[in-house]
Amino acid sequence: MQRVKSTAIRPSEITPREVFLSRRDILKALGLGTSVAMLGALPARAAGARIAFTRNARYSTTEAPNSYADVTTYNNYYEFGTSKDDPAAYAASLQTTPWSVTVSGEAAVTGRFTLESILKPHPYEERIYRLRCVEAWSMVVPWVGIPLGDVLKRFQPTSRAKYVAFKTLFNPGQMPGQRSSVLDWPYAEGLRIDEAMHPLTILAIGLYGEVLPNQNGAPLRLVVPWKYGFKSIKSIVEIHFSEHQPVTSWSAAYPEAYGFFANVNPAVDHPNWSQARERRIGSGMFAEKIPTQLFNGYTNEVADLYRSLDLRRHY
Fold it and tell me: Measuring CA to CA, how many Å separate 39 from each of 42, 157, 207, 267, 278?
């Protein structure tokens, strides 16, 4: 994969004056000099637009990524329907420009921020992560993004911030799946603060070196590679620092199956099927399943986070 850089600036990439000025004020509030705003800008938002990035080999698996078609046409994104192909069919209705994120709770810097000020200028990193779904399938995806911890530190969470909660956009007009009662909307997810700050946890804005397609969570999604895929909340519009463990959508809907921690664990079965083995998407329905790895293969990096927990009870 090649890094793509361009010195040509298209009219669509020029930041409006009012957006630039508001961004400068936000950067000041976050303790960043206004000169930082001149170092770079977000890539064009259109799906398929290229992103300049550097490969982070330290945190990337050496496994071959799935195809672009696999990753963009087989998705769990109930805001657009419960079938795996619904997101690709219906997510074009989602409008990702403009986009803002509200930050609240136990932090010194809170408010409503543009996506540009949340992410700040790149460099963006590509990290090739395994993604494990609770339905016993898996993918290998080359994500592009930045460490979540780098973003959260700029909001200066207080000592009372033990958890970080997230919410997805609620807009049934753009997200037809939200007209159903399959879940309580908007979608909510959360992490412990140490999980959120872990260097493996990223906010993704792209995949395969391109801007995220809508069906994959544009413009901003969470990726936590040692957890089941339902932790990877998409189209984030709220970040909340909390002293108490937040309510999360799937844990509220079906607590017997979907615990708050959601760590990949082959020894803890879903009530309806075994989690001991998995099938890689794209290998075919009759391909032999492979053994599921504890923490999705990231044991060396994250096991210490859970040293004091019973992984069967805190699933």
Answer: 11, 26, 23, 47, 43
Closest residue by Cα to residue 71 from 153, 157, 129, 1: 129
Confidence (pLDDT) at 291: 97
Per-residue tokens: 293: 């790895």
17-31 pLDDT per residue, tens: 333 334 444 444 444
The answer to whether residue 170 is domain-embedded is yes
Say which amino acid occupies 107.
A
**From the CB of residue 40, how many other CB atoms can be counted at a distance below 10 Å?**
14
Residue 240 lies in a domain: yes
Please tell me the distance from the alpha carbon of residue 187 to that of residue 78, in angstroms, as a whole number: 9
Residue 7 in domain: no
CATH no. for residue 136? 3.90.420.10
Integer angstrom CA distances of residue 281 from 24, 62, 132, 152, 307? 44, 17, 10, 33, 32
- Asked, for residue 5, whether it belongs to a domain, the answer is no
Between CA 270 and CA 205 the distance in angstroms is 30
Q: Which domain holds residue 60?
A: 14-306
> What are the strands, taking DSSP E only, across the chain?
53-55, 100-105, 111-114, 124-132, 137-147, 163-168, 188-192, 202-207, 210-211, 221-223, 236-242, 277-280, 290-291
Q: Render pLDDT for 55-86 as a digit per residue (tens, 0 to 9).
A: 999 999 999 999 999 999 999 999 999 999 99
How many domains would you assign to the chain?
1
